[in-house]
Amino acid sequence: MISQIEKKVEMADEQEKKIRITGEQEKKVKISVDQLDFFYDQTHALNNVSLDIKENEVFALIGPSGCGKTTFLRVLNRMNDLIPKTSVKGSVRIEDQDIFDPGVDVVQLRKSVGMVFQKPNPFPISIFDNVAYGPRANGIKNKEELMGIVEESLRQASLWDEVKDKLSESGTSLSGGQQQRLCIARVAAVKPEIILMDEPTSALDPLATFKVEALINELKQNYTVVIVTHNMQQASRISDKTAFFLNGFVIEADETNQLFTNPKEKQTEDYITGKFG
Ligand SMILES: Nc1ncnc2c1ncn2[C@@H]1O[C@H](COP(=O)(O)OP(=O)(O)OP(=O)(O)O)[C@@H](O)[C@H]1O
């Protein structure tokens, strides 16, 4: 009798394992980049880049200075459009939409692909107004609705408990790490699908870095996160996949664990073992 029960439990475990593995395989591709080239006038900053980034994963971009990581990140919400004499070839699709299609509403694109910068950049207005800024710009005026969005966004950014009693104080009065989490709340408030982060912890101390890393790990439940980092330990701590960039090329992209423990390319190995960079 006992062994029958044990067998049933075992079968149920197997079944669950199968479902989970199938679930993993069915993760949708959120961003599909195909043969992407990017130029700043004559500078060929990205060269034939093809990558798939899946939903609800943290995707890290690593590589030495000037290899194209930030350029790649900024292509994803067409921030580079703002720089004169730039040009792009190839395609970037977010789900079914080609983001370079002339019909694309770039303002809408930047709402669904939010960005967090290296240096925390809260507006010199209250904590509440910082987070409510985007929703207000989208036409939400109702005070209760705004309050709900502000609380939800600050909770998502793991900042609510620290600021709930001082929402009217200036965003710039917070510590660097809190300011960065405020910026993440500001992005979350417009309900993006993708969050781009350009070295979001490089201006923070170790404790603040730890908090933002923990937050990134939680954010992937609701968002796809693409993050540039100079810190390889950070990439290995927080990301599911990593792409190694060099001179505008993607040399290797793989599961983070695989890329750091068993890289396929010699250049990747040399970089992660500190032979150059
Ligand atoms: N606004 C710009 N105008 C002209 N060239 C640029 C501009 N931004 C970047 N570049 C050039 O494009 C190439 C890629 O730069 P990018 O900033 O994407 O590299 P990165 O890997 O993010 O570097 P870092 O790690 O130092 O931030 C470099 O040769 C850089 O000089």
Automatic annotation (TrEMBL):
SMART domains noted in UniProt: AAA
Domain ABC transporter, residue spans: 31-272
CDD domains xref list: ABC_PstB_phosphate_transporter
ATP-binding is among the record's keywords: yes
Record-linked InterPro entries: AAA+_ATPase, ABC_transporter-like_ATP-bd, ABC_transporter-like_CS, P-loop_NTPase, PstB-like
GO molecular function: ATP binding; ATP hydrolysis activity; phosphate transmembrane transporter activity
GO biological process: phosphate ion transmembrane transport
An annotated GO cellular component: membrane
The keyword ATP-binding is assigned to this record: yes
Keywords noted in UniProt: ATP-binding, Nucleotide-binding, Transport
Signal peptide feature range: none
PANTHER family: ABC TRANSPORTER I FAMILY MEMBER 17 (PTHR43423)
Protein name from the UniProt record: Phosphate ABC transporter ATP-binding protein
Organism of origin: Salicibibacter kimchii
Organism placement in taxonomy: Bacteria, Bacillati, Bacillota, Bacilli, Bacillales
